[in-house]
Design a protein that fits this description.
Elements lengths: L2 H24 L12 H8 L12 H4 L7 H12 L5 H20 L12 H17 L2 E19 L5 E17 L5 E21 L8 E6 L1
Antiparallel strand pairs: 1-2, 2-3, 3-4
């Protein structure tokens, strides 16, 4: 066999040897090899790592009341009956309701808040408004804002499915009371009144009406 043929066979053998070695080191793209994963797929596959562990604390509750408190138990029961109930959203609504109801009372405009207060609260407010009118008094009030609010207590009735949430408010406003002649008999346009109110809101958690009603007031 001449020299060129021998050289060709040797080179061919070396090539085959190198191919086999490369396959052994790098592997092949056949069988059950894991495919390439895009960044979007990586994020999607990692999502379960951030899911809330069943049985763990509900931060929507524990951000506002102690985890093992009676209020926390009541709020959790409300959520089981109405999964759309969110404590943080409720408190945001309570903040707006406080200003709306308070100013309607100060301005003697109770008709505008009838859907948001119970009959007992309406009767109490109306008694004060009627007394003002009988004395010829008018009120000019300006709401400044809520300086602090906390969820004080919560209860849930398993039979009636009614939930009650009590909220403490600290707020500021100016209020001037004038008599029939327009003379100031109480308050000042420049004097800031600091109020402390404790209000209780109630709602049937399995009902169709999503509105909470003010059912009790106090200091």
């Amino acid at each position: 066999m001449n020299s060129p043929i021998i050289q060709l066979l040797v080179l061919a053998g070396i090539a085959v040897f190198l191919i086999l070695r490369l396959r052994g080191v790098l592997g092949t793209r056949e069988g059950f090899e894991k495919p390439a994963v895009t960044r979007e797929e990586t994020v999607s596959r990692r999502k379960p790592e951030f899911d809330v562990i069943e049985g763990g604390p509900d931060l929507d509750i524990t951000d506002h009341v102690a985890q093992d408190s009676a209020a926390a138990t009541a709020l959790a029961a409300m959520k089981r009956v109405d999964p759309s109930f969110h404590v943080g959203e409720f408190l945001g609504g309570a903040r707006g309701a406080y200003e709306m109801i308070l100013m309607a009372f100060e301005n003697s405009e109770l008709d505008s808040i009838v859907p948001f207060i119970s009959q007992d609260v309406y009767d109490a407010f109306a008694g004060v408004v009627d007394e003002r009118e009988a004395k010829g008094l008018t009120v000019t009030a300006n709401f400044i804002g809520i300086s602090d609010m906390t969820l004080a207590h919560a209860e849930f009735d398993e039979i009636t499915k009614e939930g009650e949430v009590t909220v403490r408010f600290k707020s500021e406003m100016t209020s001037v009371v004038r008599n029939a002649e327009g003379e100031i008999v109480e308050g000042s346009e420049k004097e800031i009144k600091r109020l402390k109110d404790t209000w209780t809101f109630a709602r049937r958690m399995d009902g169709d009406d999503p509105n909470w009603k003010l059912v009790a007031t106090g200091e």
